Every structure is written in structure tokens, then in C-alpha cells.
Amino acid sequence: MSRLLPAILLTLLLAACAGRPVRTESALPPLRLSPASLQGTLALQQQLHFRFGRAERDLDALLEADAGQVQLLVQAMGQTGFRVQWDGQELQEQRAAWLPKQVRADRVLDDLQFALWPTAAIAAVLTDGWQVVDDGRVRRLQRGGVEALRLQRNDDGSLQLDNRVEGYSLTIRSVPTGDPAP
Q1: Which residues belong to the signal peptide in this entry (predicted)?
Q2: What CATH number does the domain containing 17 carry?
């Protein structure tokens, strides 16, 4: 589930490469949930498959999260593209020079949290008519009944994230790596 954060990064990268602007008139609401609101820990190695229009890309990611911090590392062809750390107060990022500026740490964090954090934690921070609906298989972020973000939990354990506002999709396959580092 933590696969969403890297997925967003790749999606934005694809958007930049495709030369298509990200729509802002229906911008998704920021989540910025505390790491503690995850109510657990994560240590995952992920394979990400992004689709933006006709462009498709594969990335690798490492995700660790506990009550104090979220850390994400995204690589493409063995090169680090992005590192993100979030402690609930400050979002820090390190990025490779080749990574397009459209790949934003805040959007990646929000996608990750939408995919992995409890539904109640997401619902508690939504404003301006936004709501999250989750039936256990599909989680939707919607406003006025219009779906903006959709997460499908597949039988094989993979996740499918569709961002209808920014026009990308991400398939996430995760493998536990053990306990997160202290």
C-alpha cells in the first residue's frame, strides 16, 4: 500500500515527459497525516508501473514508516531519483537533477497516505465537500459525488491507483522487507 507514494512520483515524471500540464482547477486536497496516524509500521520494497497517457514506466521503491517518520526512496534503472522524509511537521526531499520539477514530494506523500493510512484518519482532515468512501476493496476520494482518486485492492495483493484529476494510473506490487529501521 505504501507503494502509492512512489507511484505518484513516477506519474508526475511521466506527465512532465509527456509535456502535458497537470490540471489544477480540481486540485486534490492535501492530507499531511501524521506518521503516528498510520497506527503501525511499514517496511516494503515495491515495484511500480506508471501509466500517463501512452507513456509507461517501471520504478523501484523502498518505503519505511513508523509512528515518528515516513521515508521513501525511489529508483529508476539503478539510479536514485527521489528521497522523501516526513515527520508530521516537515517534509524533506532530496532529488536527482534529472527528475522533472513536476514531481512533487507533497503529492507523492498524499498518494501514499491515501493508499495506506486508515480511512478514518483521511476522513478527519478532509474539507470543502471532499469525502472518502471505502468498502474494503475500493477506496474513493470524491467531491460532489465525482470521483477524483480511486484505489483498487486486487486479489493478488497489488494496488491500482487512478488519479483522475492529474490523469495517471499506478500499479503497485509490494514485498515486506522486515522491520523498519529505528
Answers
A1: 1-18
A2: 2.50.20
